[in-house]
Design a protein that fits this description.
With 179 residues, this protein is mostly helical. It has ten helices and no strands.
């Protein structure tokens, strides 16, 4: 958020500073910076789970919508790729949680031997063959696909943030004229 809004929000709700651009007013004391760095380091070391991947998908989708509205195609392309990688992550985390592999290469071998896995791979293939820079309407398919897959292969992961997912969907409805 912009610096001028950050000062007021910091006093009202106490957000944590994650990143601050060069030349910005210093909004965080040294202790806050150290605690934030430690929390980010712990979060980065924690193994992915389907719940956190769903949150990641919602954040990526919000960013994608913003950059599509600004007609920033290169950024939108990268964010759609990140959403597809998040979809892959949900599939792998739910179906082969102890996999030694994290990329794309071994995915078909790891999950394609079951009917459920093949269905997931079909969904993922549809995502990968969609336009590389989506329209706003097409952008909604990515998080919906991820949530739908998670409901099928990891319903426990969708159950805990169900209210948050519903709230996100309600506030992110396509605006008139953008679809």
């Amino acid at each position: 958020m912009p610096d001028q809004r950050g000062r007021g929000a910091a006093h009202r709700i106490g957000p944590r500073l994650l990143w601050q651009g060069p030349g910005a007013d210093d909004l965080a004391d040294t202790g806050t910076r150290q605690r934030t760095a430690q929390q980010l380091a712990r979060a980065a070391q924690a193994p992915a789970n389907c719940g956190s991947l769903l949150v990641q998908a919602m954040v990526l989708h919000a960013m994608l919508r913003k950059h599509l509205a600004r007609v920033q195609q290169y950024i939108a392309y990268g964010l759609l790729h990140d959403l597809n990688a998040t979809c892959r992550g949900v599939i792998r985390t739910a179906l082969v949680p102890h996999s030694r592999h994290h990329g794309w290469h071994h995915l078909p071998d790891e999950v394609g031997h079951t009917a459920r896995g093949r269905k997931c791979l079909t969904e993922l293939t549809q995502a990968l063959t969609s336009p590389p820079v989506p329209t706003v309407a097409q952008a909604y398919e990515a998080p919906d696909r991820i949530v739908r897959l998670a409901q099928q292969i990891a319903p426990h992961a969708v159950g805990s943030p169900a209210d948050e997912i519903s709230a996100y969907r309600a506030c992110q409805q396509p605006e008139e004229g953008l679809v």
